[in-house]
Structures are given as structure tokens and as C-alpha cells.
């Protein structure tokens, strides 16, 4: 029997970052299927984007020096020698004293280095009066301005957003290598837990809440989900079902009961899945202290607190970053959070991180975070909340009006 | 021919909020499929949650008054008359001077009004020494504490989050009525645009970027997507394809070329789809001024700017709220944004809202928003950005170090 001391939130996040990585090799998927998946390798461009100089306005392609000094009172005069068609190559170059009409997005012909806007010219019988001078490069996107040949357009570890898929399209990539979506299995335990579709409850029974909250939260993180159902508080059946699910998944989540007996089972079952076993046994956090994190082989197993609201808060804090690790996602350069002021004093114990559920209110003087109180077992407290505020372990509390960061629930 | 004056961002958002609502009737879906969909009707509970009083600790169910004054030096003595099993009804009541052992989550028996924690008692041969007094209700969740019979647990218009599905499970709902996901069709136009899978480009050609960026952004908003492909700059084929797609969809997005000729086509095609026709023709915004919003029958049609980065910014500002309207989603009580300081001075024109792409940097003194510059046509500027900062129409610019809100790109 090993002994553990309770870890801080930061220590727990370090364990997650240090111990886990993608379990399965990258796969190749089409761009359309790659949304929100994580790129497994750097992507370099083999082309310039655009691969030709383009006009950014409707107007006339010219040599800038031919327009120098042009003004309303003293226009420059150029010969119009052609017209650029959209999507077509320019046929002839622009020589000294010449201009060619060009649409927005059209290809700037050889010889021309700029485009004068249609608003600043007048064309009379192939003679162009230019009333404003342009500088070299004006109103032109040069070849390679967007992407140069050899540029790394996206780095490995990036979760692919619409704009990322856009730049991949631009360079002609139609598929990319990404990490497969992790498979997350969820098993609820507890003699009092009955399936959510049981119509009439007997005294002492409650419906399974964690299966759906944790499963859907995992889906929001990009995981595929296996619903493991409910096992009674019996070591043999719990251990057997857990082993089956562990073998089918990349991450096993056990939503345990909260009684001492059940917690002991949960820990034993986690140890039984393989070495090195339990890494974190208890976190100095409220709610969610009885969280357990284990590693069996290379795969993570997490024992979540049984109270639904606690389970979901622990999910946000630890399981979401864990799923990101399993997808090879590089940590963001910033924490996504919004600033508000807390609407009342809240006391907290030093040495423990408290997570306060809050509702956001946009008032005349800014955004306020209004605490939603209730025992950690109450799922309704989370339904009424927009996010949570951390009172860090080194603080005794927060004062009314104090600036806080709110971590939004998705 | 109607004449339009350019609208502000706020006026455009008012048009969207005032003119559009769900086109199709609600559907019934299972809870598992309801994640991120929008509830179409208020849900009331027909039950109490929990439907019996539960212990929140391992301990003994007692009558609080029997423990009054108990302390380490002067314990109260109670007879242990039973043991509550998890998930089972309590068999007999707790009478004066009695106690029954109870696990966390167990059903508190009749007569008992509180639970004394196992840490604060000693049981010797069915005699319980109680070393700490408890108050009535202590360590007990009463029937209905989480949800009362008749409570409105979730209001119509709520996008269903994991915790919302959790409370629905708790009250025994296995399916809910939600608005169907809107079908969004996307059609790209432009003689220079070629499919993204074309390997080798001819001079003057560029690959289609907007189809994938706009389609995947629409998916992130919960929409189903129809890819309409690319039509050349020819009124007849453009109008015909647009009409086909309009009939199959709840929202048609036209990603037009940016030349004057193409913009005229786009407007004509939008008018041809039905009355009342164009509602917004140009927005005082940079980038994205040539945005067009029309209504044909009850359905919206949006003409996006052709430049990929502009198109995606306009999507975030106007199309995402429009898709929310089509799903019946009630506006959030707050704007999701994060606070940072801008890393340099940026000038802006009064009377126009500017959207500056920024990259976020977590520095020792807090979060900074570093502008990513580049012409609005460059998709790479969006790839390098984490979000955007608005310089509102009444401002001449922002100064280095000024606090700004960053709207994150998903």
C-alpha cells in the first residue's frame, strides 16, 4: 500500500503534462474532416500564395514612375494598351507610358508595379488621364505576400481552426496528418445509481447524471465516447468492467461513489489495471478533493468525484487538459478567461484552491461575477452558472468588487 | 433600383436580431444528440431531485437535538439501531436517543434530521459516542434541494451544455425538443477561383479558400453545411445555382468576388431570390465594408466579401449571431471576450469600426494583444492571430498600453 499526500492544482497539472502523450500514431484526414483536430506535423508550403501579383482594387496597372507628380490640375497621360481578364494571364507587358485596365484580384502584368484606382482616372478613347500618383507596390499584393515558398504555415500541435484549413487550401493541401480523436470510456459506479431512463425511482435511488455530463464534455474536447454504463459497488464486477473498457479506450474515467468504501474500490481497481498505478490521490481543491489520477502502461485513468457538479469542475480543470495532451495539442500561449468583478465577499482556506461557480451579469459599470451557492452535489448550481472563479491556495478569500478571472463553461 | 446608405455594426446587428428567427419547427432528440443544440421550450420538473433526503458524508443519521452540547470531554451516547444500505430505503425510523450508520449518498431515515460525520464518533458494541454536536439539516441534502417539483430547470433558447443535459437526466427526461440545426449553403463566385484540389495553378488563378473557412466556421456554430462549389462571374449561372441552393437551405452565403462587376452580380442575384430583398448594403467597417444582407421570404442571404480574411471576420461578427437566431438561441447575458493591453498605437477613422487582428502574449505583467498586420486579403494574418480587437466607430484609435477586449477566434 502506497501513501500519498494531497497535491496542489499546479502539481496535478504538471503530472498530466509530464506523464501523458498521444497513444496512437497520426492519421491522414481530408481538410473537411480536420476541423478541431490537432496537426501532427509541421506543414510547409511548396508554393507562393498568391503565385502571381494581384490587384487589390479595380483600376489600371501602371508603372508608378509614370504617375509621379500627377494631380487633378496636372494629370499624367497614359496609353491604354489592354484589359486584364479575371483568372487569366496578362497577355502583354506594360511599357513606359502605358496602362492596362485591371479588376480587383486580376493579375498584374509584367512591367507594371502598381495599380491606380478607377476613382482617380478618366479614360477617353484609349487615353488615360491619371489624377493621382501611386507608389511602387501600391494596391498590389505581390507573389508570396501571403505565403512564401518554404514557409511553415502551421506548426505541429495546432488545433485546426477554420482559418488554418483556409491556408492549407490556399497552398493546395487537401489532406493533413492529425492525431486521432482519443477514445474516452466512462463507467459510473454506485449501488444507488440507476440508468437515467428509469421512469419511477425507488426510495434511495438516483439517476445517473455523470455519464451524460462527462461524456458530452469529453465530446466537446474532441473525443469519441464509449458509455460504460453503471456497475454496482462490488469489486469483482467493477474491476472486470473497468478492464474491458480500459482495453478499448485511450482514457478511462471512473465516476465513483463518494463513500469511503466506494473510494477504496475505485483506487484498487485503478491499481489493478497496471503499473505505475496511482500518481495523484487527492487534490487540495474544493470541490473535488477525492480526485484520483493513475497511469496504467502509457494510458491515463481518472477517478472523478461522485457528486455531479464536482465531477464536471474536475473535468474542466484536469480531464480537458489531459484530452488535449492525448491529442498532441500544444498548450495555448494564454488562458482563455474573462475579467469581471466579484459581487460579494467570499472566504476561503489558505492551502486550498476554491472554485466558485458564478453567473455573469453585464451591468452599467461593467461585468460582474455573481456567486451561485449550493452544495457541491447539486447539478442545478452548474446549470445556473456561466463559469467559475478560482480563489488560489495562497489567498484567504476575495473581497466584493475585486477583479477576478472567470473560466467560462462551454 | 433602391439606394442604401452604409450601416454601422450596431445597426446591422439590430437588423439581424429583428428580421430573422427559426424557419423550421422544433424536433425531438435524445439527450445524447442534444449537446450544443438549442432548447425550443421551457422544461419543468415533475419530480423533486433528490426525491429523498441524502447524506453528504459517511457517518450516523441522528436527531440533532440528541447531540446538543456534545464535545470531546462530554460525548453524547446514542443507541445504534440500524445500518442504511446504499440505494435502499431506510427500513425503520430514528427515534429519540438512536442513530443509524449511513454512507455518503445514503437515504436519511424518518425521524433523523442530520448526519454526524464518522470522524466525530466512536461506535462500541452498538453504543455510539458522539463528540461533536450537529445542527438540524447538517450534512444532509433535503428532498428537492437540487430541483423542486414544478421548477423551470432550463428555459427555451438555452444552448444545451453538459450540465444542462445533466439536470435533464436527473429529472428523468430522456429526450427534449430543440430547434433543428440550420442548413447553411455556401457558394463561391469568381472567374479566378478554382477548386482547392487543383494541383497546378495557371497564371491568374487562385484556389478557393472561403468555401472551407466559412463552411467549417458554420459547423462550429452548429450548422449543417452544403458546399455549393464555384460559379463563374456570369449572371445566369450564378442566379440559377444560388436559387437551387437557397431552396435547399435555411441560410445562403455567397462569397463574392470583390470587383465592381462581381459585386453588382451578387446584389442582383440576392434581389432575384425574393422580397423584401436587400436590407443591408455595406457596413462602415474595416475590413468587410462590401457586406450585403438580404431577406427572401423569411430566409436570410448574406453576400460576404471575397477576401478570405475579411470574409471570416464578417462571419464572426454577423453570420455567427445570425445562425444563433436561426436556432432560436437567446442572446447571452454577456459578451465572451478577454481583456488584454494593446502593444502599440493604432490609428483609426472616426465613423468606422476597425477590427484589428491580434496575437495574445502572456507576459510577466499580464496579457498583451499584439497586432498582426497585413492586407485584408491575406489569410495568413488570421492564421497568426488568436482573436480580434474592435476600435469602435467613435474612436480615433487606441494607444499603446490601453486596455482592450479581445474576441477570440474559436
From TrEMBL, chains A, B:
CDD domains: MoeA
Chain ranges of the MoaB/Mog domain: 185-325
Pathway assignment: Cofactor biosynthesis; molybdopterin biosynthesis
Enzyme class at the top of the EC tree: transferase
Any Pfam family hit: MoeA_N
GO cellular component, one term: cytosol
UniProt-listed InterPro entries: MoaB/Mog-like_dom_sf, MoaB/Mog_dom, MoeA-like, MoeA_C_domain_IV, MoeA_C_domain_IV_sf, MoeA_linker/N, MoeA_linker/N_sf
Residues annotated as transmembrane: none
Record field: catalytic activity: adenylyl-molybdopterin + molybdate = Mo-molybdopterin + AMP + H(+)
Entry EC number(s): 2.10.1.1
One GO MF term attached to the UniProt entry: metal ion binding
Cofactor dependence: Mg(2+)
One Gene Ontology term from the biological process aspect of the record: Mo-molybdopterin cofactor biosynthetic process
Assigned keywords, A-Z: Magnesium, Metal-binding, Molybdenum, Molybdenum cofactor biosynthesis, Transferase
Family: Belongs to the MoeA family.
Chain's role: Catalyzes the insertion of molybdate into adenylated molybdopterin with the concomitant release of AMP.
Protein name according to UniProt: Molybdopterin molybdenumtransferase
Source species of the chain: Brevibacillus nitrificans
Highest classification ranks of the organism: Bacteria, Bacillati, Bacillota, Bacilli, Bacillales
Amino acid at each position: 500500500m502506497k501513501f500519498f499526500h494531497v497535491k496542489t492544482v499546479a502539481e496535478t497539472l504538471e503530472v498530466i503534462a509530464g506523464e501523458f502523450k498521444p497513444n496512437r500514431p497520426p492519421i491522414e484526414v481530408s481538410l473537411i474532416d480536420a476541423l478541431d483536430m490537432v496537426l501532427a506535423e509541421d506543414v510547409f508550403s511548396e508554393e507562393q500564395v498568391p503565385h502571381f501579383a494581384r490587384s487589390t482594387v479595380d483600376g489600371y496597372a501602371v508603372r508608378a514612375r509614370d504617375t509621379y507628380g500627377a494631380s487633378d490640375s496636372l494629370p499624367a497621360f497614359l496609353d491604354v494598351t489592354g484589359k486584364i481578364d479575371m483568372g487569366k494571364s496578362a497577355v502583354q507587358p506594360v511599357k513606359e507610358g502605358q496602362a492596362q485596365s485591371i479588376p480587383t484580384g486580376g493579375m498584374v502584368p509584367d512591367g507594371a508595379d502598381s495599380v491606380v484606382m478607377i476613382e482617380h482616372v478618366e479614360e477617353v478613347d484609349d487615353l488615360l488621364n491619371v489624377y493621382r500618383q501611386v507608389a511602387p507596390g501600391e494596391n498590389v499584393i505581390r507573389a508570396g505576400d501571403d505565403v512564401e515558398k518554404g514557409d511553415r504555415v502551421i506548426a505541429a500541435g495546432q488545433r485546426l481552426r477554420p482559418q488554418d484549413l483556409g491556408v492549407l487550401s490556399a497552398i493546395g493541401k487537401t489532406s493533413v496528418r492529425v492525431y486521432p480523436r482519443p477514445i474516452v470510456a466512462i463507467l459510473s459506479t454506485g449501488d444507488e445509481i440507476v440508468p437515467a431512463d428509469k421512469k419511477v425511482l425507488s426510495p434511495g435511488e438516483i439517476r445517473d447524471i455523470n455519464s451524460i455530463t462527462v461524456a458530452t464534455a469529453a465530446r466537446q474536447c474532441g473525443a469519441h465516447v464509449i458509455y460504460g454504463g453503471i456497475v454496482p459497488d462490488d469489486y469483482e464486477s467493477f474491476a472486470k468492467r473497468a478492464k474491458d473498457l480500459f482495453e478499448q479506450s485511450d482514457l478511462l474515467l471512473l465516476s465513483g461513489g463518494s463513500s469511503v468504501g466506494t473510494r477504496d474500490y475505485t483506487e484498487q481497481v485503478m491499481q489493478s489495471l497496471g503499473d505505475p498505478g496511482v500518481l495523484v490521490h487527492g487534490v487540495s481543491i474544493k470541490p473535488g478533493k477525492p480526485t484520483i489520477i493513475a497511469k496504467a502502461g502509457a494510458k491515463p485513468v481518472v477517478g472523478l468525484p461522485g457528486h455531479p457538479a464536482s465531477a464536471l469542475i474536475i473535468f474542466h480543470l484536469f480531464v480537458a487538459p489531459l484530452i488535449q495532451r492525448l491529442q498532441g495539442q500544444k498548450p495555448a500561449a494564454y488562458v482563455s478567461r474573462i475579467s469581471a468583478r466579484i459581487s460579494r465577499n467570499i472566504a476561503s482556506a489558505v492551502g486550498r484552491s476554491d472554485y466558485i461557480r458564478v453567473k455573469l451579469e453585464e451591468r452599467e459599470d461593467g461585468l460582474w461575477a455573481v456567486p451561485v451557492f449550493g452544495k457541491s452535489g447539486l447539478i442545478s448550481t452548474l446549470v445556473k452558472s456561466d463559469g467559475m472563479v478560482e480563489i488560489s491556495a495562497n489567498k484567504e478569500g476575495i473581497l466584493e468588487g475585486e477583479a477576478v478571472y472567470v473560466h467560462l463553461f462551454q
